[in-house]
Amino acid sequence: MTASKPLPHTGSTADDPIVAAVSALGVKVRDASRVVATASSLVRDAALLAAADGLEQAAVAIVAANAVDVARAESEGVSPTVVDRLRLDVSRVGAMATGLRQVAALADPVGEVLGGWVRPNGLRIEQVRVPLGVVAIIYENRPNVTSDAAGLCLKSGNAAFLRGSSGAIESNLAIVAVLRSALESVGLPADAVTLLADTSREAAVAFMQQRGVVDCLIPRGGPALIASILEHATVPFVIDGDGNCHVYVDAAADLAMAERIVVNAKTQRPSVCNAAETLLVHADVADEFLPRIAVALSGVELLGDERTRALIPGAGVADDEAYATEFLDLRMSVAVVDSVDDAIDHIRRYTSGHSEAIVTGDLATAEHFTRQVDAAAVLVNASTRFVDGEEFGFGAEIGISTQKLHARGPMALRELTTAKYIVHGSGQVRA
Amino acid sequence: MTASKPLPHTGSTADDPIVAAVSALGVKVRDASRVVATASSLVRDAALLAAADGLEQAAVAIVAANAVDVARAESEGVSPTVVDRLRLDVSRVGAMATGLRQVAALADPVGEVLGGWVRPNGLRIEQVRVPLGVVAIIYENRPNVTSDAAGLCLKSGNAAFLRGSSGAIESNLAIVAVLRSALESVGLPADAVTLLADTSREAAVAFMQQRGVVDCLIPRGGPALIASILEHATVPFVIDGDGNCHVYVDAAADLAMAERIVVNAKTQRPSVCNAAETLLVHADVADEFLPRIAVALSGVELLGDERTRALIPGAGVADDEAYATEFLDLRMSVAVVDSVDDAIDHIRRYTSGHSEAIVTGDLATAEHFTRQVDAAAVLVNASTRFVDGEEFGFGAEIGISTQKLHARGPMALRELTTAKYIVHGSGQVRA
Fold first, then answer.
1. I want to staple A415 with a disulfide (CB 3.0 to 4.6 A). Which of A239, A276, A411, B371 is the partner?
2. Which domain holds residue A324?
3. ipTM of the complex
4. Which residues of B touch A260 (CB under 8 A)?
5. Is the same domain home to B198 and B253?
C-alpha cells in the first residue's frame, strides 16, 4: 500500500523558505499550465502575437532594464563576448518579436493523432499528441532565450517556468512582464510564463526538484550546469549537450568538396555546438589533403597526431585530451586513420553523440558509416553546421538533445509534447 | 573549452572497488551492445529461439537453482506471496521460453524510417529508428523478468544490463547463463546479456550512475526503488510507476455497464498497477449506483466520504491519505461528486497519471473528460485493466511509463529504441 503522491523531493525539505517559495511558484505555474494545455491554438497564437507587439512597444524600457545588467557585468569585469550576448538594443528586441510571430505561424503540434487501431475486442485505441504541461528552462546570460523559450512553450500548449541567470535578471524581468500581460490580454493566466526571480543556487536546486510540477527540464548551458542537473535534478530532463563533432574525409572523397565542408564546419561559426572539432583523414589521401586543408584553415590552430604533424609542420600535438575537447574556438584536432573503421573507432571513443560527418563518394562506405556511428545526426557530404532546428525545417529550436530518450537531435515544437492514449469502448471488461 | 567525455559519475569515484567493478562490467556490455545494434534481425531472432530452447533444456537445473533462493526466502520468513513470485517450476520456465519465442515472432522495430524530407538546399533528411544501446533494468524478486527483459532488449537491438535482487540471485545466474550461451551459439557476444551479480546497495547505486554506458534505465519496483533512482541515478531513466487509477461513473452512465467495469477494474487482479483504486460517482446516480455497487463489490473493503457512507453504511472513512493510496488490494476509496468537473478535479489532485476511466453515454462529457484528464491512458466505457502492452496489441510489455518524457503508457519494443537523423548531401555548406 503506497501513497502515490507526492513523490519525495530529494535532498531538501519544504521547511526551507527558499524551497517553499519555489514550490509555491511552481504550483501556480502548474495550475496555469492546465488552462494553456486545453486552450485553442487560436488563443495561444493570439497571445504570441500580442507578446510580439508588446515587446516592440516596450523595447525602450527593456533596453533600459538591460543596460542595468550590462553595466553590472562590465563593472564586474565580465568578458566582452559574454557582455555582447547579454546586450540588447531595439533591433535585438525587434528580432525577439519577429521570432514570436514566426513561431505563431507554425503548425500547432497539439492534437495530432500519432496512430490508432482497433483491438479484436472492439476497443478503439488512439495515441494523441498533448502538451507536456510545465516546461522548465534553466539558462545563462542571453535574455532572448526568455522570449524564445516562452514562445515555443506556449505554441506547444505548455507553461514556461524560467530560471535565467542573475546577470540578466533585470532584462528577464522586463521581458517576462511583457509576456505575462500579453497572456492576460487574451484571457490566459499570466502564470503560464513565470520567471524564478530568486537567482540563488539554492533556488536553482529547488527548481530542479519540482517533481509533480515540472514535466520536463531543459538546461541550456555548459558542463557545470549539466553536472549540477545530474547531481540534483529529480524532475525529468533533456540535456542540450556538447558537440564534439567530427568530419571524416574518406579515401573516396571529392577533396574539393571535403575542403569546403571542413572549412565550413570548423569556421563558419566556431562557437556553436554543431561546429566541427576534429578532422579525421584517410591515410590514402592524407598526403594530398592535409597540406591543402592546412592552407584553407589558415587562422585555425591545428593539433595533430604524428602523421598529421609530418604533413602539417606547423601543427601542435594532439593528445587524448585534445581529441576529447569541444574547443568552440578556431582550434581543431586532426588525426590520420587507416580505414573507415578506424575513423568510426576514433569517433566512438570521443564523440559526444551530436553530429558526425563523412565525406565520401563510395556508397558502401557511406552506408557503413551512417549505420555504425551512434550520434543524433550522421551526415554524408554535408557540413555538421546543418544540424539545427531551423536548418532541419522545424521553424524553431529549443535546443539540440544529445541524449537518446525522448528527443535526439534538434528539438522544436514536437519535442515539447508528449502523447496520451485515448481508449474508447462499449463496456469491455478484461477476462 | 570543455572536455566532452566522460561526464562525471556523481557522488562516487572509480577508486571505489565496487564502482570500478560495475564500471568494468558496464564497458563490456557497451562494447557488446555495438555488435547487437547492427546485427541483423535474423541473427537476433535466432539468439532468442536458441535461448528458448536452452531454457527448456536447462529447466531442471534452473528450478534447482531457484530452490536455493526459495529455501533462503522461506528461512528468512519472507511472505508467501513474495515466495510465490520467486518460485519457478518447469512449467514456469516453459512459459519463459514461450515468451521468448513470441518476442522473436514480433516485427523488428529497428530500421523503421520515422520520416524523411528534402530541404530547399537539396539536403535529404531521414529519421530512422535505432536501438538505444544499453538498457539497464533494475528489478525485484521475479526471476522471469530476467528472461522477459533480456528478450525484449535483444529483439530491439539492445544489450541488457540486469540487476535483480539478492533474493533471486541463484535463479537469475542460472537463467542468464542460458541466455549468454544462446548468444554465443549464434555468434553474438555473451556480454549483450549481463547480470550484475553483486547485489549490494553500493553496487546498485554504481549501476544507476553508469553514464556513458547505460542509455536507459528502467526500474521495476516499488516506491523505495523509485526514490532511490531519483536520488542516485545519473543515467537517463523511464519510471514504471504507480497506478492510482480512478473510475468515474457519470450521471449519463449505463449503470449495468458501470457495475461491470468497476467490478472488473477493482477485482479482476487487484495487485497490479492498472487496477482501479478509487470510484467516483456523480451525485445524480449515487442513490441508485452506490448501494448496488456495494453488493457487487462484496469482499472489497470500501472507504468513502460522508455522502458515500450515508448510502453504504458499511463503508469506512476515506481521508486524504486513502484517496492518495494505491491499495493494490481488495480495498477501494469512493467519493460522490457533483459534476464531471468535480471528478476531474479529484483525479487531478490524486492521480499518478496512469489510467483513468469514465463511464458515460454522453458524448460531450466523454470528450471533456478525455481532454481534461492528464494521464498516460484515458478510457471511455472500458476497464482500466486494458492499459497493458499485450492488451494494446504490442505483443509484449517491459513496463508502463507514468512519466511524460520518451514513453508514456505501456512500453514495448518501440519504447526501447531511439532515433537517428541521417542527412545526405552533395557538398552543401552553410551560408
1. A411
2. 245-391
3. 0.93
4. 427, 429
5. no
